[in-house]
## 1
Amino acid sequence: MHPEVIIPEPGKCPICGMDLVAKEVPKAATVKLAAGVIQKIGVRTALVDEFPLRRTIRTVGHITYDETRVVDITTKIGGWVEKLYVDFTGQMVNKGQPLIEIYSPELVSTQEEYLLALQSRKYLTNSQFPEIRDGAHSLLNSTRRRLQLWDITEEQIERLEREKVVQKLMTIYSPQLGIVIEKDVFQGGFVKTDRPLYRIADISEVWVDVAIYEYELPWVEVGQTATMTLSYAPGKSFQGKITFIYPYLEKKTRTVKVRLEFPNPGWELKPEMYADIVIESPVMVHGLAVPDEAIIRSGDRNIVVVDLGNGIFEPRGVTLGVEADNHYQVISGLKSGDRVVTSAQFLIDSESRLKEAILKMLAKQKAGETSP
């Protein structure tokens, strides 16, 4: 009733509800060629056999910062910059190195309050009233806690207790070794608590982002190794590994982003560089395989031309699996020991189709002559 409706399994027609009839795919006509013709058109064949498939993926990587090694330097108290130790982007800083000194009136008043609390505790610690003694201890502890929450170090607090001198300036130190990749503070400027002063990145290990096509995903997994080469360092290679495969696809490029990690002890790898990446997949697929040059893609199916011997050739549909090493895995349509044509198969397939069309035409003419 509706021949345009074709589905891959038995069922009912969505238009009229009738049971669908199995569609018969006509077998391609065989072609017999003389030995001279085979030699003249350059027919070559390959044996279908078990073949271990392993894929090497070559792509371009983009070196970027390891996000887990990037820190923002902020202050928990506002004030004016009195001294700037690190004053340009790209400067290397060590862990514990002073970055800036800030004058904050609020910090000065809190230090004075802390000294008064120390003095009060000294005079009231022997008071006969527990409430007064506890109040002196509580005031001292709360003031000390406020200084700690502003990132005043224990060494600075002990110095304040020992010397009884209020420190006008608060020094901010670098929490890690790295380079300054962003700087938003200047000599004499006013800093706020909600604005990062520096962004420092440790590049002793870097990330490399690469794009992998959809059909290459079966060959990629977390933990496998990769080799990187750079145009500015010919003859030198770097070894890394895949640490993360992003769980989404890029809509426009139809690729998946994969993250690799590379050690960078000498800081030779610089963020924003581009590099050549080679990923050797440890995944190996054993199965029947044919050379990719033997495949004829007709749009709706894949065809190979099978050499049946004695100059007889037969086009045959096959179901393909993964592709690697210029070979395709064959899931169905061929068996071990078959021979497939790897050159001139288009001429043979065209001859087969022409022969098939002529046979169908003759069959229809014959049926028309014998019908009443």
## 2
Amino acid sequence: MTGLPEDIVKVLVHQQYFVHGNHSAVKLCTYTKKSLKREAVCYKQRFYGIESHRCLQMTPAVAWCTHRCQFCWRSESWAMGNEMNNVKIDDPEDIVLGLVFGQRKLLSGFGGHPKVPREKWEEALYPKHVAISLAGEPTLYPRLGELIQEFHDYGMTTFLVTNGSRPDVLETLDPLPTQLYVTVPAPDEITFKKTVRPFDTKNGWKRLMATLDLLPSLNTRKVIRLTLVKGLNMHSPDKYSELFLRSGAHFLEAKGFSSVGSAHAHLGFDRMPSYEEIMSFSEQIIGGTELKIIDSTPIGTVSLMAKEDFPWRRKLVFPKAKKELPPPYSRVK
């Protein structure tokens, strides 16, 4: 059993990832850096109350994924295939402490930055929110529930992003994350196969539909996210609204594709919807339904739709901390 090959690690490090153990990584989000410099914050802070400067963006499966999405900017997301069978699986607490250390190391250069308030930087060294996304498909990590529990034990909220290919994992996941994101990359099966190029070409769409049907039974905050690419999956708005209503999720995000990273090689800037185009498409999605646009922002080129604007969407309930993070720059064995 092995971990990541050295050549993949070199690529990830070059892309400013901090790689820990056999299969996990953390990377500073653009908006974490912008928030520290008081330039901008992520739309998730506006929509859901996440403090951008205290968010840790990580993955427990950096190079394993069930999809090979055309719009994915992470070049190594599926380099090792769609299963983690031949990987030595790391302990959840080791992953948490290792990636907090990695985040702190990546933040070290901001400590003396003239635009960064010292107090804000010191807060960032103690993350309060974890985005379990970044690269790969996190539901492939077999100890995901234990990982979420570890983050909760350190008093952090968790935001799990999945492509919906593993409904069997979500069905038994314990505990559930603070917020569950499911990406719906297409309005129909033909577009789905073209857009995400799933390893499971026969059952990929069925697995996504099974995930949507499972969502009403999961007692947590739920979001359906659309990543929209002009000329690829930005069509049939009525079918997107049908899929969202089928899921029973609380919120629907329509987000414009960004032509960056690996995606830029085959999807250029002309495939990026403008903010105005996203808003127009969102209007088409809600047309004739009980949905409404409850928020939007040009930052991230995204709109937020729902049946109602829940008063608690910006208020996060933090898990009760049972453990304390070590002081900054304490080394992990």
